[in-house]
């Protein structure tokens, strides 16, 4: 019965009411029915959905037993890559990102979502692309950012040679089998990584993940 109630709630989110109806509000974000509808099959996830979901992951990471997670918003990387550390130095005002275990950087490449993950415990920077493209230059851009952030905020020099940069290969992580699931893949990569779990889902899980995310965003609670 609980599952049926959830299903009918998810269907109602897609089907009844006006596009501008507000369905969830948190993390200084407002999610409308129109935003939620990007979670319909083969929909393209927008920035609001991506940022809201990252907010849920950060919120969960404050609980006992989870790695401490910091997530940049989806506009961070494009701003950093088009300016420099100076262009984004205010983004971490009052925050020491180095006090976290994991930093998530969702990246929007024109029409494609990817994820960069900094593990401060392991000193690794990994790039996750559900289409299998390499992002070595993106890893290098973020390492340079971390060096400058550390120098400016903590007065500590990072030793670049101690860091491992790696673009995940197609045999290492699941790959999307259509042109529209990249956003869901990125959210789920981030979900599994922020629990220190191996990434074991497949493209077949996407329709289920999409519906689950609708419920989680409306209730501001990860299942």
TrEMBL record:
Hydrolase in keyword set: yes
Tree of life domain: Eukaryota
Start and end residues of each Ubiquitin-like protease family profile domain: 29-193
Keywords: Hydrolase, Protease, Thiol protease
GO biological process: protein desumoylation; proteolysis; regulation of macromolecule metabolic process; regulation of primary metabolic process
Matches recorded under InterPro entries: Papain-like_cys_pep_sf (IPR038765), Peptidase_C48_C (IPR003653)
KW DNA-binding (keyword) present: no
Similarity comment text for this entry: Belongs to the peptidase C48 family.
PANTHER family assigned: SENTRIN-SPECIFIC PROTEASE 2, SENTRIN/SUMO-SPECIFIC PROTEASE
UniProt-recorded name of the protein: SENP2 protease
Organism the protein comes from: Bombycilla garrulus (Bohemian waxwing)
